[in-house]
Amino acid sequence: MVEVRAAKPSLPSRVTIYEVGPRDGLQNESALVPTDVKAEFVRRLLAAGLPVVEATSFVHPKWVPQLADAAELMELLGDEGRELPVLVPNERGLDRALELGLKHIAIFGSATETFAQRNLNRGLEDQFAMFEPTVRRARDAGLDVRAYVSMCFGDPWEGEVPVDQVVDVGKRLFDLGAGQLSLGDTIGVGTAGHVTDLVEAFVAAGMDRDQLAMHFHDTYGQALANTYSALQAGITTFDASAGGLGGCPYAKSATGNLATEDLVWMLTGLGIEHGVDLTQVVATSIWMAGQLGRPSPSAVVRALAESPT
Ligand code: HMG
Ligand code: MG
Known about the structure:
Blueprint (H helix, E strand, L loop, with lengths): L15 E4 L1 H5 L9 H13 L4 E2 L2 E2 L12 H13 L3 E2 L3 H9 L4 E7 L2 H8 L5 H15 L3 E7 L3 E2 L3 E2 L2 H13 L4 E6 L6 H13 L7 E5 L6 H10 L4 E4 L19 H10 L8 H15 L6 H8 L3
Parallel strand pairs: 1-2, 1-11, 3-4, 4-5, 5-6, 6-9, 9-10, 10-11
Antiparallel strand pairs: 7-8
Helix pairs in contact: 2-3, 2-11, 7-8, 8-9, 11-12
Bound molecules: 3-hydroxy-3-methylglutaryl-coenzyme A and magnesium ion.
C-alpha cells in the first residue's frame, strides 16, 4: 500500500474527490447495467468514504439509453439518493429531479460550438437560454447547482480551444447561479502547463480557486500530471471515476476519467487528506469490472488486484 508522506506546505492539505463513476462511467458502457447493480455501485462508493457521488443523468433517454433508468435508480437509493447530485440539462430534466425530491443538480455546458450542437442539440449561445431558467428554478426550489464546462482544452472538431473562450463560457455558466464550476478536459488532451494557464485565467476573471473543480479524462495519460499542476495552482476539488470508467458518448475520442484509485494513491503519497478508503474503492472497481465483463483500466486497480497488500 502507498506510503503516506509528510504534507507539502505548497499544496492544499485536504481535497474533495467528486466521484463520477456511476454517471460519467456508466453513460458510456455498451452493456446496459441493471439498476440494482448501479445502486449497489453507488452505495459501495459512499461506504468507501467518497463524499460526493454523482449518481446518474436526467437527460433524454434516447440520447443516453444507459441512464434511462435514472428515476428508478434514485427511487431505489431512497433518502441516500436525495443527497447525491445528478446531471440535468434543461427544465424537463429539472422537473424529473424535483418530482423525486433531489437536492443537487449539475448543468453541463460546452466551450465550443460543435460540441454544443452534438451534445445539447443547440448552439453555443443558445445553450444559455436552456440553462438560465433551469438554474433559476432550481435555486428558487432550494437546490444546489454545479456547472460543468466541457472541451476546456481541446475539441475533436475544432482543435485547441482558446483560454479566453473557455473563461467566457465558464464564467457565464457559473454566474447563472452555480456554486461550483467543473472544468472538463472531455477528450483528455490537456497538459500541465495548459492547466495552470486556464486556472490563472479564471482567477484573473474574478473566480475563487475554491469555486473551481477539475474534471480530467485520461486519454493521453496526462490526468495525474494535470491534477498535480492544478494542486499547485490551489485547486481543491477533483472529479474522478472509480476504476477509470468513463467517456462521453457524444465525443468519440473521450475515454475514461482519471481513476479514483490513481488519484487517491497520489494524494495519499503527498500527505493530502481525502477521507477515502483505497482498499474499498479498489474492491468496488474489481466487482464492477466483473459486472461489466472487462478489466478496469486503472493502473492502481490492476496493480493491487495482482498483488493486494
Ligand atoms: P432536444 O431533442 O433538443 O430536446 O434534446 P427538446 O427540448 O427539443 O425536446 C424534445 C423531446 O425530448 C420532448 O418530448 C421533451 O419532452 C423531451 P416530446 O414533447 O417530443 O415528446 N425531453 C426530455 N425527456 C426526458 N428528459 C429530458 C428531456 N429533455 C427533453 N431531460 C437535450 C436536448 C439536452 C435533452 C439532449 O440533447 C440531451 O439529452 N443531451 C444529453 C447528452 C448527454 O447526456 N451527454 C453526456 C453528458 S455530458 C458529459 O459527459 C461531459 C462531462 O462529463 C464533462 C466533461 O467531461 O467535459 C459532464
Ligand atoms: Mg466527463
